[in-house]
Structure formats: structure tokens, C-alpha cells
Amino acid sequence: MTDPNTPPERVVIVDRQPQTNVNVQPERRGGGGGFIAFLIGGLVIVVAVIAYVLLSGNNPVSDAADTNVDVDVNLPKMEAPSLPDIEPPTLPSPGPAPSN
User: Fold this and answer.
1) Cα separations in angstroms, 85 against 28, 42, 82, 90
2) For 57, which DSSP code?
3) pLDDT digit string, tens, across residues 60-76
4) R_g over Cα of the chain
5) CA separation for the pair 19, 17 (Å, rounded)
6) What is the pTM of this model?
7) Phi and psi at residue 38, in whole multiples of 5°?
């Protein structure tokens, strides 16, 4: 029986060839271009719809009634309410200066 406190024998491999690892990083590709194109396309469509609605011949604003409205507002002159006569409070007179 062997002693469990002794380390096992080391095996040395001498015939091993040196190994070189070459890590080649792939080219970086720009991401997120699809989302930006989708966003810009959506904005172009919104602007086109607004332009069509505003520039088409069926504009309901042009068929509106006369917009010349004469507004005359005559308000009575307002006066501020009168305040009661109140005597302002008196301030106490200062005491004599302390002597050093």
C-alpha cells in the first residue's frame, strides 16, 4: 500500500512538438444599418402622406365659410377696491449701546 500523503510521480514528455495558435479576427461589420433605413423609410412615408393630404384638391379648409369675423369687446372699466385706513405698526426704539 502506498502512502496517500506523497505526491504521484511526474511523467515528463520530451517528444512534444511546440504548438503555435494563430487567432484571426473576422472583419468587423457595421451593425444597425437596417434599423436606421427602416426608420428613415417610415419618416419618408409619413411626409408623403401629409403632403398628399395637404396638397390634394379635396382640401376642406378651402371650402370653409368666410373667415372675416369682426370681434368688438367692450369691457367696463374696473376699479380697485378701496382699502381700509390702517395705522402702520411702530418699531421699538433701540436700547442704549453696550459699554465695553
Assistant:
1) 85, 70, 9, 15
2) S
3) 665 567 778 888 888 88
4) 47
5) 6
6) 0.33
7) -65, -45
Cell of 76: 367696463
The single-letter code of the amino acid at 12 is: V
Assign 3-class secondary structure to 1-55: CCCCCCCCCCCCCCCCCCCCCCCCCCCCCCCCHHHHHHHHHHHHHHHHHHHHHHH
Determine the Cα–Cα distance for residues 80 and 55; give it in Å rounded to an integer. 53
pLDDT digits (tens, 9 = 90+) for 7-46: 777 777 666 677 788 888 888 776 767 888 899 999 999 9
> Rounded CA gap, 43 and 49, in Å?
10
Q: Which residue has the cell 395705522?
A: 87
Residue 34 half-sphere exposure toward CB, CA atoms < 13 A:
2
